[in-house]
Design brief:
By secondary structure, the protein is mostly helical. Helices cover about 65% and strands about 10% of the residues. The chain has one domain.
């Protein structure tokens, strides 16, 4: 196979960049976005057109004991009494579409993972050395976390709301933050790159799922069962067909329970790397500072969930605040503030 290679001198080491693999990586990145968009709309159509189980009037067979003869024996007879039974659910086109959307998301995640792997092979390094690659890794971590956390059939349509920010972030990354495959800058040439950034990306992906679940929880509390004209159509139909507020709250909590200590571990690994690279563990760099703030807010959320009177909406709003802080730290801090992390592709 004819492989196009580019040699780039990096210090005393010549790095070979495989341009063909890099192009395949970019193609798979675009393919993953397309598949995610398709799956997202399939799930949304499923939510908007799903049919709830209906309860209809019917006769219910009621067994009675009737005395027979003097012997005191008895016979069992059936008597029909008015009652309500649950009609067998009729599977609509939207229901079938929702069933098909879940494997579509998995295919998209596999294409996305392949894109990251090819990027790493093409550059012969960990494929998260700039903002474009970092966003890609965080987004695929979010999708995989959603696939695992929302694997129950009743929860799967919630993946549409997970895919919405993922598609947005991937579009921003591919459109404005894209960086050609190249060696990392000297400051990132450390084994800590593979450890620190991967842990932060994976934990952030899990925490993004939690934030989406809390937003849906608040929407369910606000509009679930509402009869107002403004929410009577598609919005109410979608909100009515997502899981209960309690189920959404549990999803958000469990995701934070997993992602919070992992995120803290990533911050600690970053501090250790900072000491070896810059001679100090902590220097209040903008990204360090906002990461710490996000970690504190998540700690406050966990504390609120364990405190009487704070377990419902108040805790959800704290989680949403942590979610917003995390998104700002992941994708916006490098755009608005200069710091020691600014070399990551910007």
């Amino acid at each position: 196979m004819n492989t196009e290679m580019i040699q780039i001198a990096s210090g005393e080491v010549t790095v070979h960049i495989d341009e063909n693999l890099s192009r395949y990586s970019d193609l798979l990145y675009t393919t993953a976005i397309t598949i995610y968009v398709l799956a997202m709309f399939m799930f949304l159509v499923s939510l908007a057109t799903a049919r709830s189980r209906k309860v209809v009037d019917a006769g219910v067979s009621v067994k009675k004991l009737v005395g027979v003869g003097a012997s005191g024996g008895s016979a069992t007879v059936d008597d029909r009494a008015p009652g309500r039974v649950e009609q067998a659910p009729v599977r609509t086109f939207g229901d079938r579409l929702g069933d098909m959307a879940y494997p579509v998301v998995i295919v998209g995640a596999l294409a996305h993972i392949a894109s990251i792997v090819l990027r790493g092979v093409a550059t012969d390094r960990a494929p998260w050395g700039n903002m474009y690659e970092f966003i890609s890794l965080t987004c695929v971590a979010c999708v995989v976390a959603g696939i695992v956390v929302l694997r129950k059939p009743d929860y799967r349509p919630l993946l549409s709301f997970v895919l919405l920010p993922v598609v947005l972030f991937m579009f921003i990354g591919g459109k404005w933050l894209y960086t050609q495959a190249a060696p990392v800058v000297p400051a990132l040439k450390s084994y800590w790159l593979a450890i620190h950034v991967s842990i932060i990306s994976i934990s952030s992906g899990v925490l993004l799922v939690s934030g989406v679940a809390s937003l849906l929880y608040l929407a369910k509390m606000r509009w679930g069962g509402s009869d107002s004209a403004s929410t009577r159509n598609v919005l109410r139909r979608i909100v009515d067909h997502i899981p209960s507020a309690q189920a959404l709250d549990r999803v958000a909590y469990k995701a934070v329970v997993f992602g919070f200590p992992l995120f803290g571990l990533g911050v600690i690994c970053g501090a250790i790397w900072a000491e070896s690279a810059w001679g100090r563990y902590w220097g209040w760099d903008p990204k360090e500072t906002v990461s710490f703030i996000a970690w504190v807010i998540y700690a406050a959320y966990l504390h609120a969930r364990a405190t009487a009177g704070w377990r419902s909406r108040a805790a959800a709003w704290i989680n949403v605040a942590a979610f917003a802080t995390l998104v700002f730290n992941l994708f916006a801090i490098n755009l608005v503030v200069s710091g020691l992390h600014s070399y990551a592709g910007l």
